[in-house]
Specification:
Length: about 325
């Protein structure tokens, strides 16, 4: 490729001395490089019998081909750099099952804007399964619920989300502006299965015990619809960020006094040198989207209530 670049410069200048100056090299090595190229190709590229050198027929054919070949080499180098920076290819990313559709849509849009040439393969995977897939190479990056064992992982920015309680709207506690964990003692508690995120599951129960909440019974729900159905039917209370519960008029979401339950979410990827280069960028984008989503939710919570404290329409129906 170096000899082809020298050949093109000489062909453009049709003068060995000017070509050498253009390339910042001495003329003898330049002439030797052209001779070596001619020997390798088995054809003379320049007619040196005249006062000014000219391209031979072989030289004219090679000139067009050489320009195209060097252009393709430049493109190859550009693609390799983009791929090395994580801007091309496919990124396999895991997200928790409780991730909202709005958050996923915003995250994909942010990824497309940041790296248009990168395809993001989103997979709905629990924290425990994400850790297994990250270790085996089945995932490039994931969004996990802390705490997790990060010995073999790199972690991105962490986003904290305060959880409230989801109650049947007919519950007397639903009339309070906020609820203390201890006031929920004796109620059945609906949680995600421990296998989804063991560290976070155990952390929730430890905090509940410390705050005086002793559940009557532990129930488990893998998806938000089943969780809301159990609460609606009076089979327990649950903890949630708020947006999902607010879509069901038969339940009420209330903040917890003192904000004792804080869910921590972070991007994670393998600590190996072979990790996908786009993984840290995805973790940063996801943290930004989660933070903005949480800020928007807080603003909705702080929105002015109807004058006179009038109940919402569904409060009238279900109370």
């Amino acid at each position: 490729m170096r000899h082809l670049r020298i050949f093109i410069t000489v062909a453009d200048e049709l003068h060995f001395s000017r070509a050498a100056d253009q390339l910042g090299m001495a003329q003898p090595p330049l002439s030797q490089a052209v001779r070596r190229l001619e020997k390798d190709l088995g054809a003379e590229l320049f007619d040196r019998s005249h006062r000014q050198i000219r391209l031979t027929a072989a030289g004219m054919v090679l000139l067009d081909e050489a320009r195209e070949l060097l252009a393709r080499e430049d493109r190859l180098r550009t693609l390799a750099r983009r791929a090395g920076d994580g801007g091309l290819g496919t990124l396999r990313a895991g997200v928790p099952p409780d991730t909202t559709a709005a958050m996923l849509s915003t995250l994909l849009a942010a990824c497309a804007e940041h790296s248009p040439g990168l395809s993001v393969d989103l997979q709905e995977v629990t924290t425990e399964e994400q850790l297994r897939l990250l270790a085996s190479g089945g995932l490039d990056v994931g969004l996990v619920h802390q705490p997790v064992d990060a010995t073999e992982l790199r972690l991105g920015p962490e986003v904290s989300v305060e959880l409230g309680v989801v109650l049947p709207r007919s519950s007397p506690l639903a009339r309070l502006p906020e609820v203390a964990l201890g006031e929920l003692s004796g109620h059945d508690l609906v949680l995600f299965p421990r296998a989804h995120a063991p560290g976070w599951y155990d952390r929730i129960l430890d905090i509940c015990r410390a705050e005086g909440l002793v559940p009557g019974r532990l129930r488990h729900a893998s998806n938000s619809e089943f969780l809301l159905a159990l609460v609606t039917a009076g089979h327990g209370i649950a903890f949630d960020q708020g947006p999902v519960a607010r879509k069901e008029p038969r339940v009420a979401w209330r903040p917890l006094a003192g904000r004792p339950l804080t869910q921590r979410i972070t991007g994670a990827w393998s600590a190996d040198r072979s990790a996908h280069p786009a993984a840290p960028h995805f973790a940063e984008l996801a943290a930004d989207v989660l933070a903005r989503d949480r800020t928007a939710a807080l603003r909705r919570d702080d929105s002015p209530r109807p004058q006179g404290g009038a109940p919402r329409p569904w409060s009238v129906v279900y109370d």
